[in-house]
Amino acid sequence: MEPPNQQDPNAEPQVPRQCFRRRYPEADYYEEKNKDKLRNDTYKKAIDCHADKIKDKVVLDLGCGTGILSILCAKAGASKVYAVDVGTDIAGQVEHIVEANNKSHVIVVWRGSFEDFDIAEREGVDVIVSEWMGQMLLGEEMLLKVITARDRWLKPEGLILPSSGTLFMAPFTNSNQYREKVAFWQNVAGIDMSAMIPFTEQNAFHLPNVDRIRNGYLLANPAEVKHINCYSITTPELISMSISFPMTALRRGVVHGFAFWFDAEFTGLRDEEEQRSALDLMDEVPVLCTGPSLPSTHWEQTLIYFPAPVTLEKGKSLTGSVTLTQPAQHKWHMDIQLVYRSNRGNLVSDKRVELFSR
Hints:
Elements: E1 17-18, H1 26-34, H2 37-49, H3 51-54, E2 58-62, H4 68-75, E3 80-85, H5 88-100, E4 107-111, E5 125-130, H6 142-153, E6 154-161, E7 164-172, H7 175-181, H8 196-203, E8 209-211, E9 223-229, H9 235-239, E10 240-248, E11 253-265, H10 272-278, E12 287-289, E13 301-312, E14 317-325, E15 335-341, E16 347-354
Parallel strand pairs: 2-3, 2-5, 3-4, 5-6
Antiparallel strand pairs: 1-8, 7-9, 7-11, 8-13, 10-14, 11-12, 11-13, 14-15, 15-16
């Protein structure tokens, strides 16, 4: 059964966006991020929460964008903040923003490639803060840069914010979108064009969509794909990771694909078990949640549609595996392989997609 339409009837229709690196002109890209109130508020809460580890310390803001995190750290009492961004145009704007906020004596803006950036050997940094999360958590190369910066410059007891991130997935139903893209071929201007349906099923949803999926559209409880500990994760671990998942249908429904989303966690803790224990105290630990049950963020969710829908009976299982691979030469790309099996264990699909394209 299709869940009731929970959208505001007066809201403008939302068009799903495919996961391309440059979805918008640069100004629009930063506008979207800075309008994300949940993102802004969570980072501010996290920086305030860890102000005792930031005060009088040296901070590296990696991928600083418009400089909002750099300024928040300066306001928290940092003695120096290195604001680094490869976008030379935006870095020029950051200098004006820093000056307008009277933080030029604290914040040093670096324009250019991260690989060319360096810090005096004896100085190092006490804190690394970054918005490294991309689509499906790992859909950008920023975490690889955080790892490099951590290993080069972070002091032994240094702080990383966010400290960890967790990627989740769950099967979803979305008959409205399926009808819009596929089912209308049954009859076009009184002509039977149903022969187009198999072709459309294979092509209409080839690329992932960035879209908002309602919590009521999920057909099973989410499975954890990967927990990333920013203090210990290594580059080889990020290049390829794979998990197997068992999911049990909460009700009967037609599965149109899998939804992916993430939490970014600001515990400040190094040990993974301690990180997970702290997350049980969600009210005390700042967590940026991008899931469908919570207010929307600019990340929304990443939806990977099946080539053809799968009917799932209540209490029956949907099993399979997901493998995420970042090609060594194209770290902005991510290859996603989904293998999933239906109720009786027969192979439904082996689907490979690419998260980003140039």
